[in-house]
Each structure stands twice: as structure tokens, then as C-alpha cells.
Design the sequence.
């Protein structure tokens, strides 16, 4: 344990990990858990949440929660947070890892401890996702507009859901992920609330999660939920003048990408649903947060 990886009180920073699974990748899940167990420094406590599915046999010491129904990605991860006490209060930070991912390096947990200890304003860290065979990081996995160089670390305005670390003080201050979203954009909702509360977010190229290259559209509900949740995201978080601008830009971008007719139909249905269904509590960000997002390279209009 390095001296830098300690809290302000002088004690080592404690880490937990939340792994969400549908129970259909037992071999990949076991490999991930083995990679977490091999991390340098103090052991990382782990909870595996079975999201509407029974869990396979897991290593001794791993906490488990089996949910009777699928609560969606944010709902399942919120259950994992609470498994470490209210707002994850039993630990200083939580790693969120996809069940088919793997930590190829043994120093990732220690790098997380060092990063949080060195920067009291740092609330969230987004890891670099790389294909285990090719080493390639998909452009969509770099959470900034200038994504051509995935090896460059930087401050960012959002993060990747299955490859990140969050200081639990963030959850205790701004709340957890939005259960209503079920899938898509829940990370940006939390990121905007965290930034509005004064926390910062880093993308770290040296913290790597191996994950097979995939397309988000593999999920049947992708187009509908991406559109619906985009509207909900704006309605919940943006000042009123920015809502039509933000959603208008995304409508134009979607049309410019020329989706297939079924995909466009699903997207437009989700867009309509986003306006006509409850989106949860509205807490518009401060204008100074809009300026902060702009200075960080991603104004909340795109």
C-alpha cells in the first residue's frame, strides 16, 4: 500500500466492487472475480447481483444478492451499492464491472486508491475498455467528443457504466443511478448530478478493463430506450432553455446517421414516450455547471 493511497484520516482507502449478472456467463464471471481477487493491496470486497436470475457457484467471501426480477442495469447496480450499507457507506469507493469483463493488470485497484486519495474533488473514474484479442478501444468507449486517442487520459463529463469507480460519497450526496432508466444514459444522469454538486470525473487510459468488442444495438430495446432516456435525461437535468436545443441536436444527429426504417420507428416511439411518461424528479443543473461542462469540452447541447 503506497502512502498516497490513504484517506484524509490516514487510513487506507477501502474498495468494493459491484458486478451485475443475468447468470448466463458463469465462466466469464468467474474469470472476472479471479482478476479482482488478484489486485494488489488490500482485498477488494465484492458483491454479485443476480438481476432476475439465479447465481452460479461463486468463490468464498463474495457477497451475493439474487433479485426475483430484472430491475434493469441502474436498478440492479443500486441494489449492489446498498449491499455495502446506505449509499455504499461501508467502503470509500466502488468499482462497477461488467460480468464478461476482466482486469488484465493487478495494479488497477491501487491506481484507483491513489487517484481518489490524491484528488479530493475526484468523484468518478472511467476506465479504458479494450478488446482482449486486439487491444483496440472502440471510439464510443472514450467518454469525450475528441475520442481519436484512447490512450490520452483527461477530465470528462460522463463515464462508462461497466468499467468505472465511484467514490461512495457521491452516492451519499446526489443519490444513486436512476432506476427508471432501466438501460441507457443512466451514467450521464449520475455524472451530471455529480458535476452539479462539484465533483469531477476522470477518464484514465491506464486503468484497463478487457471486454469483447460489441455493438450497443445488440440489445432489442436499444433504439427505444436510447431515445426515451435521452428525453428523460434532458427533462430531469437541463435548464428549460437548453432542453429543446439538446434534443433537437440529437434528433438531427440520429437522422443524419440514416438508421434503418425499423430502428427509426423504434427511436421515434421512444422519443415520444420520453415526453409522455414520468421521468422522475426534476433537478435542473446550475448555469455554472453548464459552463463547467462547456469548459470540459462537452456543452450539454450534444
Sequence:
Amino acid at each position: 500500500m503506497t502512502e498516497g493511497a490513504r484517506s484524509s484520516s490516514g487510513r487506507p482507502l477501502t474498495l468494493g466492487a459491484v458486478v451485475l449478472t443475468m447468470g448466463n456467463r458463469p465462466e466469464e464471471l468467474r474469470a472476472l472475480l479471479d482478476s479482482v481477487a488478484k489486485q494488489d493491496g488490500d482485498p477488494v470486497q465484492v458483491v454479485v447481483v443476480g438481476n432476475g436470475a439465479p447465481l452460479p457457484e461463486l468463490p468464498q467471501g463474495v457477497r451475493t444478492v439474487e433479485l426475483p426480477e430484472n430491475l434493469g442495469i441502474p436498478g440492479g447496480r443500486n441494489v449492489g451499492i446498498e449491499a455495502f450499507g446506505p449509499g455504499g457507506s461501508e467502503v470509500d469507493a466502488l468499482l462497477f464491472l461488467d460480468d464478461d469483463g476482466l482486469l488484465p493488470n493487478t495494479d488497477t485497484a491501487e491506481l484507483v486508491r491513489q487517484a481518489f486519495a490524491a484528488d479530493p474533488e475526484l468523484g468518478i473514474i472511467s476506465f479504458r475498455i479494450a478488446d482482449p484479442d486486439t487491444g483496440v478501444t472502440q471510439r464510443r468507449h472514450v467518454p469525450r467528443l475528441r475520442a481519436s486517442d484512447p490512450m490520452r487520459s483527461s477530465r470528462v463529463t460522463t463515464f462508462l457504466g461497466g468499467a468505472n469507480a465511484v467514490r461512495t460519497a457521491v452516492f451519499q450526496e446526489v443519490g444513486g443511478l436512476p432506476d427508471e432508466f432501466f438501460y441507457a444514459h443512466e451514467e450521464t444522469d449520475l455524472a451530471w448530478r455529480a458535476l452539479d454538486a462539484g465533483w469531477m470525473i476522470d477518464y484514465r487510459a491506464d486503468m484497463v478493463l478487457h471486454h469483447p468488442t460489441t455493438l450497443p444495438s445488440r440489445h432489442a430495446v436499444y433504439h427505444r430506450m436510447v431515445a426515451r432516456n435521452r428525453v428523460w435525461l434532458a427533462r430531469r437535468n437541463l435548464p428549460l432553455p437548453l432542453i429543446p436545443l439538446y434534443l433537437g441536436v440529437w434528433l438531427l444527429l440520429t437522422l443524419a446517421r440514416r438508421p434503418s426504417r425499423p430502428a427509426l420507428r423504434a427511436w421515434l416511439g421512444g422519443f415520444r414516450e420520453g415526453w409522455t411518461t414520468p421521468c422522475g424528479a426534476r433537478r435542473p443543473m446550475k448555469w455554472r455547471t453548464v459552463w463547467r461542462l462547456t469548459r470540459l469540452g462537452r456543452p450539454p447541447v450534444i
